[in-house]
Amino acid sequence: MSATGTARRGPGWITRTFVHGISGWLTLLTFIFMLAPIVVLIAFAFNSGRSTVVWTGFSLDWFAKVWSNRHIARALNVSLVVAIASAAIATAIGALAAIAITRRQFPGRDVLGAALAAPLVLPEIVLGVALLVFMSYAGVSLGYRTMIVGHVLVSVPFATLIVRAAASSLDPQLEHAAADLGANEWQTFRMVTLPQLMPALFTSFILAATLSFDNLVMSTFTSGVGTTTLPLRIYSMLKLGITPEINALGTLLVLANVTILFLVMGRYLPLMLKTNRR
Amino acid sequence: MSNSDTGVVELRGVVKRFNSFTAIRRLDLTIKTGEFFTMLGASGCGKTTTLRLIAGFELPSEGRILIDGDDVSEVPAHLRPVHTVFQSYALFPHLSILDNVGFPLTVRRVPRKERLERARAALDLVQMGGFFDRKPSQLSGGQQQRVALARALINEPKVLLLDEPLGALDLKLRKEMQHELKEMQRRLGITFVFVTHDQEEALTMSDRIALMRGGEIVQLDSPTGLYNTPSSLYAAEFIGETNMMPGEVVEVGQGRARVAAFGQELDVRTADAISAGTPVTLTIRPERVAAAGTAGPNRVEGRLREIDFIGTDIRLVYDMPGGTRVTMRRQNIGSAAPVPGEPGWLEFGDGDLRLFRH
Fold it and tell me: If pLDDT is split at 50, 70 and 90, which confidence band does A272 have?
């Protein structure tokens, strides 16, 4: 490195120019490509006119409108209930499955592992249709129950993968130590295994809740009368014509997401930095 | 229940198989109350498996295990009156030092006040007072080892099992801990069952040593017995440093034999029934080889090849007739050392030589 570095125009100068110059610009372009639509969305939320293309002036009216829209409030409520319920159930299933797969020997262990990851590769629309057909066959009316089941189905693979990664990095010696010191299986789980899995369970819950909150396809098939989620509501609003009200709603969602992200990072970032420094 | 004839731990005809692999061939072993018992051997000899069988992490394929007179062969680990100190310490990373040490009491639902008092006392015992609120990751390896020890001792187990507990410590700390462990064992009177691959450690600390190989005990003896009178070539080689010299029995007498080695004949004391013409290996410890000024019985002339300065000792390596090398070890008492290339007479005392058949 130092030999080519001292030669002013050695054979590596093209690479160096690319690395130092062009790659920086490429990074910038990538960011613009990713973030520009969101910036435009947020900007037009403050437009005073009805257009999402032509700027006519600054106003906060659209936010007021979102705030007073009963349908949106109701949809938000539905989304939150479904997100929290399905995330809790998915995380519980994922955690138990992950512990079973990493800690126990039983016949069909590999099959179970594969089956739990299967929804990940199946098209969601197929899952949705299958669930709809099954529910109508079983005579279950569409509503919260069917939607929560659907969302659990979508997020269980992620929950399992996250907790599995954490569970497989646990030191099995610690469980032996707990047993050796007199703890029965339940005490070992409650006092040794579970506390160590907490960060993974938390991550899994947040991810599953986010997936559910975002979900459109599964919700389309499994929602019933009066259980319209926020994405479904936005989608139906689009059909009536786009107004900056949607921009305002989108802006609020971005704000909420970033806030949650920072709260999570604020809790875990110092921890991560500390472990990396060792 | 326990008395001096029945040991605190007894293994009767224990066999352990993992699928097709037999880890323990057949083990009959009695560990006496209050002794410092060591299982010594190279990796894969079955010493750790034996410890895990006593702890209850593995169940025997055949045979019975008794602790304090009770048959615990089928009893799960958490109900056995033994505790283990692991090589990796196995401290709970999410608990403070005090809660780690108090863990055995927490699971037994000992009231909080008593638990904390006893945990503090246990930490004081291992000189780790003042570290109560730290997490294990904030301690050094040696400190973690002390905490693990306090945690295993807090419940006053009948038997303490130690699985290479000093293996991860550096040499100086290891020597200190060896001394401290031995001291603590004497003071508390708890039976220690110690596993190590370090023969020096085993010799320093143990009351008795079981030398293991291939899932069996090769020799069960006191440290001096194991060192001075190894019963096999393997034991002689594994414990300490040993010179090995090929030879052939020429003549057998009452409790002694004459063996041809280095192109001459040496007198060896032996209790073995052995016949003339048998090829054998003679062994002698480097510190038992004596320098002799002149020729004489049981003396062989060699040529000094190299000198290693060790500090307290000097190692002299001699080229002997027939191509064998013999190491002599003597104290560094400041006298002039010979120069490589010089010839010298070495004496092999008839009681210091040991004779093994192939």
Answer: low
| pLDDT value of position A5 | 45
Tell me, yes or no, whether A190 and A87 share the same domain.
yes
Residue A271, pLDDT score: 57
Range of the domain at A185: 69-251
| Residues A132 and A200 placed together within one structural domain of the fold | yes
- A contact test, residue of B53, B79, B84 with most A CBs within 10 A: B84
**ipTM for the predicted complex:** 0.78
- The encoded tokens of residue B310 equal 């060790």
Give me the number of domains chain A comprises: 2
Q: Give the Cα separation of A104 and A165 in Å (integer).
A: 15
State the smallest CA–CA distance between residue A173 and chain B in angstroms.
6
CB-based contacts of B243, cutoff 8 Å, min separation 6: B283, B284, B285, B286, B289, B325, B326, B327
Is the torsion defined by CA of A211, A216, A220, A221 positive or negative? negative
Instruction: Give percent above pLDDT 70 in chain A.
Output: 91
A245, burial (CB in 10 Å: exposed 0-12, middle 13-18, buried 19+): buried
Cβ contacts of A179 on chain B, cutoff 8 Å: 56-57, 76-78
pLDDT at A277 over 60: no
Which tokens in the block code for residue A119? Answer: 């929804």
The confidence band for B161, taking pLDDT boundaries of 50, 70 and 90, is very high
pLDDT at A8 over 70: no
Q: Where does residue B42 rank: exposed (0-12), middle (13-18), buried (19+ CB within 10 A)? A: middle
* Structural domains for chain B: 9-237 (3.40.50.300), 241-357 (2.40.50.140)
Q: Which of A95-109, A185-199, B64-78 has the lowest mean pLDDT?
A: A95-109
Distance (Å) from the C-alpha of residue A108 to the closest C-alpha of chain B? Answer: 19
Distance to chain B for A170, nearest Cα, Å = 11
Q: How far apart are CA A55 and CA A50, in angstroms?
A: 9
Q: Is the model more confident about B6 or about A154?
A: A154
Whole-Å CA distances, B144 to B85, B93, B148, B190: 11, 11, 6, 21
